[in-house]
Amino acid sequence: MLTDTAEKARGLANLPPVQSDSLLQLIALCNADQRPDKIDVGVGVWRDGAGNTPILRTIKAAEQRLVESQVTKSYLGSAGDKRFTELLRPILLGEHADDDRIAGLQTPGGCGALRLGFELIAAANPGSHVHFGAPTWPNHPPIIQSVGLECVEYPYYERGQGVIRFEDMIASLREAAPGDVALLHGCCHNPTGADLSDNQWREVANVVAERGLIPFIDIAYQGFGRGLDEDAFGVRLMLETCDEVVIAQSCDKNFSVYRDRVGSLWIKTGSAETTAKALAHVFQIARQMWSMPPDHGAAAVHIILDDPQLKNDWLQEVALMRDRINALRQRIASADPRLAFIGRQFGMFSMLPLSKEQVVRLRETHAIYMADSGRFNIVGLSDAQVDRFIAAVVEALGA
Ligand SMILES: Cc1ncc(COP(=O)(O)O)c(C=O)c1O
Predict the structure, then answer these.
(1) Within its chain, how far is the Cα of 136 from the centroid?
(2) What global pTM score does this model have?
(3) Which atom of ligand 1 is nearest to the CA of 258?
């Protein structure tokens, strides 16, 4: 019972103001800009040459089928659409698809998978530290902290030179305590675009295994880098090397269903029995958070992956999205030697070696909107905007 006056005063109206997410602020600024030639390379969605984020034709076809064939919207349970997860299994796990020590479930997007995975880690080992590379996707630290786990940064990227600080990363991971978590980006690193090479993955896997760390891999852009299998190299290597692995996966980009919130969480432990036990915890945690994931997007993905023709068509759509990203990368990289690093990177993002002041000047002078860190979405550019963007960036980099 609340008797203390100060306690009574703590109603909803007394909540402190929230520091708004800087990316959301950027979107609001861009939306408010009336200049017709503004360039939005802040928000992280794939765009076509005309600057649109279209619905994939395979998703449209699947949704059509869904409307015609779905007979109930009754509850599915905390695991969501089990056939969806089953169909995703070989795409993500490759040669490990038949390993009964690995179990997955549907989640509300990659964010849901991340939160659920870290909740599980916190339940198993509340004292563990989560080591993440700097810089990382800005939503990682708050998600980790929200479950009460402590974050530790390891060096990942040297922005000035556009290279991975690999030796520093390895040295830092060697300091991690057994049972700690190493958070890794599966592919298409956000925000840098700098992916580990296959050999670097091997070295990281060895350190992770030697130190008894749990690799937690966030893979939100499979297929946007080198190819679906190539982009899953790190995921599969960790599954081969380590007994305990957590994977947060998202279909929101590679099926272009961002707002439908489609993702999955995967867990590997040392035996099928312990995995089943861990999965029971996962279901219980999911039940407390969202009870069960939204169905529509996953149902559409399920229809595509269950139909060989639609699946083949989707593979072509993914290849088209990837090709556009990589073509834009090459075009920007060849414009100036100082941008050459962009051609060696993968996925939608890269970071320009610009100061915050230079980024703000680009915004004010050229109506170009990117994150203060210099992160920009390569595929945010329409065909008509590329040359103007390159010219403005080269000008900002100076003579
Ligand atoms: C690195 C990374 N992980 C996870 C996500 C989450 O994706 P979703 O929209 O499926 O929650 C994103 C989305 O931007 C991301 O960039």
Answers:
(1) 10
(2) 0.96
(3) 9
Name the β-bridge partners of 376.
350
Atom of ligand 1 nearest to the CA of 261: 10
Spacing of C-alpha 371 from chain mean position: 17
Reported in sequence order, the residue ranges of the chain that DSSP labels E, i.e. its strands, are 39-40, 102-108, 129-134, 150-155, 157-158, 163-164, 181-185, 214-219, 245-250, 262-268, 349-351, 368-369, 375-377
160, two tokens: 């000035």
60 is catalytic: no
Catalytically annotated residue among 182, 205, 253, 266:
253
The preferred substitution site among 139, 217, 235, 257 for testing ligand 1, maximizing ligand atoms within 8 Å of CB, is: 139
Do residues 164 and 345 touch, judged by C-beta distance below 8 A? no
Sheet with 214-219, edge to edge strand ranges = 102-108, 262-268, 245-250, 214-219, 181-185, 129-134, 150-155
* 101-106-109 Cα angle (round to 5): 125
With a CB cutoff of 8 Å and minimum separation 6, the contacts of 38 are 30, 367, 368, 369
pLDDT tens over the chain, length 399 residues: 444 555 556 899 999 988 877 888 898 999 999 999 999 999 999 999 999 999 999 999 999 999 999 999 999 999 999 999 999 999 999 999 999 999 999 999 999 999 999 999 999 999 999 999 999 999 999 999 999 999 999 999 999 889 999 999 999 999 999 999 999 999 999 999 999 999 999 999 999 999 999 999 999 999 999 999 999 999 999 999 999 999 999 999 999 999 999 999 999 999 999 999 999 999 999 999 999 999 999 999 999 999 999 999 999 999 999 999 999 999 999 999 999 999 999 999 999 999 999 999 999 999 999 999 999 999 999 999 999 999 999 999 986
Determine the distance separating the centroid of ligand 1 and the alpha carbon of 231, expressed in angstroms: 15
| Residue 220 a catalytic site member | yes
Residue 278 and residue 299: Cα distance in Å, rounded? 25
